Amino acid sequence: MARFRYRMQSILNIKQKMEEQAKMDFAAARMRLDEEEEKLQVLKDRKETYQEEGRALRRDSLKVREIIENRDAVAVMDEFIAYQQRQVALAEKELEQARQNLQIAMQETKTQEKLREKAFEAFIHEENAKEAKEVDELVSYTHGRR
C-alpha cells in the first residue's frame, strides 16, 4: 500500500501553530484581566477600610484633622478605583479580542483538518480501487491460464 502524503500538510502545521499561539495569547489576556480585577478588589477593600475608620473617628471623637485626612484618603481611593476600573475594561476588551482571534484560528485549523480527512478518504478510495483492479487482473490471469 502506498504512503499517504497530504500536500497541504505545511499549511495545516502553520494553522495548528497559530492556534496554539492564539491559545497562549488568550491565556495571557485572561491572566491580565484577573490581575486587574484583583487590584480593583484590593482598592475597594482599602476604601472600605478607610470608610470604616472614618465612621469610627466620627463616632468616638471629633479630631477634625484626622477626619479631613480620612475623607481625603477616601477621595484618593475613589480616583484610584476609577482608574483601575478603566484598566479592567481595557483588559476585558483585550480578552474579547484574544477570544475572537482564538475562535478564528480554531476554525481555520478545523477547516484544514477536514480537508486532510477528505484527502485521506479519497486516497483510501483510490487505493481500494487499485487493489480491486489488481485482484481482478490476477483472477483474469489465473482463469485465462486454465
Distance between the termini: 29 Å
Spatial shape: rod-shaped
Q: What is the helix/strand order?
A: HH
CATH topology: Helix Hairpins
Can you count the beta strands?
Answer: 0
Oligomer: single chain
Largest sheet: none
Task: Indicate the structural class.
Answer: mainly alpha
How confident is the prediction overall: mean pLDDT? Answer: 93
Helix content: over 70%
Strand fraction:
under 5%
Radius of gyration: 34 Å
- CATH C-level category: Mainly Alpha
In the CATH hierarchy, what is the architecture at level 2?
Orthogonal Bundle
Low-confidence stretches: none
Count of alpha/pi helices: 2
| Overall domain count | 1
Tell me about this structure.
There is one protein chain. The protein is rod-shaped and about 120 Å long. It has two helices and no strands. With 146 residues, the chain is an all-alpha fold. The protein has a single domain (10-115), classed as Orthogonal Bundle (Helix Hairpins). The two termini are 29 Å apart. Helix 1 runs antiparallel to helix 2 (64-145).
